[in-house]
Amino acid sequence: MNKIKATIFEIQRNSYVDGPGIRTTIFFKGCNLKCKWCHNPESQVFSRQMMHYKTKCTGCGQCRQICQNTSGSCVFCGQCIIQCPNEARQICGKEYTVQEVFEQIIKDKIFYEASGGGVTFSGGECMLQADFLEEILKMCKEAGIHTAVDTAGNVPWESFEKILPYTDMFLYDIKAVSENLHIEGTSVSNKTILSNLKQLSDNGKAEIVIRIPIIPDFNTHTGEIRKIADFLQGIRYKNIELLPYHKMGQYKYEALNMHFNNYPDLDKGIIESYKKIF
Ligand code: SF4
Ligand code: SF4
């Protein structure tokens, strides 16, 4: 039996936004980009984390009283969560084997078949755990389930080669094509990302859906969207999704004690004007 494990922070059933039809989306922990607008900050580090929802907490102190850990770093025993009367604490991330994840996915096979759906692997960056991903994709394909991988693409091309035989669709994020702008927003260069997308396009095996987050004061200036559109002229893709910036993840930054970058609200009309460019 395969013993590879991955740390996953959410298994979302009945998802309609991560590929065609009804889907189950598996969110892996760990990413090698640091997007300033990330709405899933709990996806950024690979290890488990304790989340503390300050708006629910009354400061009763029962969690501190019950905690037996003297080392200073949480061992995720879960005692404080049981003790808290206000559900103000939560462990984010759990280790799963390939078989355990598959058992969750297969539950909704009937809905995938009825709706043209399937499973989507997301994150974080699920491709940073390529061995696990290869195994679970293989199992899903053998079970006749449509497979999609949601990626930022900042991994060696060899990781794509590993999973290509078992992947029907890539949801491929493009944040910016101007390298300096990309570094400013995500902390990494986009050279590998753009080169992998070109190779994926030339390879021709899997469908590609391009996803572009529209972030005010980041890629809405200096003609960046038009530059992305120009770059995509050389790429084979099925369609493009424009993802408007939102602030729904703000409460998770507070729960993790992380700094939240408050971008301006998006002018909704701008999405329509960008659609015309594409
Ligand atoms: S999970 Fe356990 S070790 Fe961590 S803070 Fe709570 S009681 Fe302490
Ligand atoms: S037990 Fe819950 S409500 Fe009380 S201090 Fe801890 S987190 Fe806050």
3D structure, described in words:
The protein is α/β, with parallel strands linked by helices. It has two domains: 7-48 and 93-277, TIM Barrel (Alpha-Beta Barrel), CATH 3.20.20.70; 52-90, no CATH class. It is 33% helix and 21% strand. The chain is built from eleven helices and ten strands. The model has no long low-confidence stretch (mean pLDDT 96). It binds iron/sulfur cluster (SF4) (2 copies). Residues 52, 57-63, 83-84, 86, 88-89 line the site of one iron/sulfur cluster. One iron/sulfur cluster binds at residues 52, 57-63, 83-84, 86, 88-89.
Task: Give a short synopsis of this structure.
This protein is of the alpha/beta class. The chain has helices spanning 62-66, 79-83, 98-106, 109-115, 130-142, 157-163, 179-186, 191-203, 224-232, 250-255, 269-277; strands at 5-15, 23-28, 49-52, 89-92, 94-97, 118-122, 146-151, 169-173, 207-214, 239-244.
What's the helix and strand layout?
Layout: E1 5-15, E2 23-28, E3 49-52, H1 62-66, H2 79-83, E4 89-92, E5 94-97, H3 98-106, H4 109-115, E6 118-122, H5 130-142, E7 146-151, H6 157-163, E8 169-173, H7 179-186, H8 191-203, E9 207-214, H9 224-232, E10 239-244, H10 250-255, H11 269-277
Parallel strand pairs: 2-6, 6-7, 7-8, 8-9, 9-10
Antiparallel strand pairs: 1-2, 1-5, 3-4
Helix pairs in contact: 3-5, 5-6
The structure holds iron/sulfur cluster (2 copies).
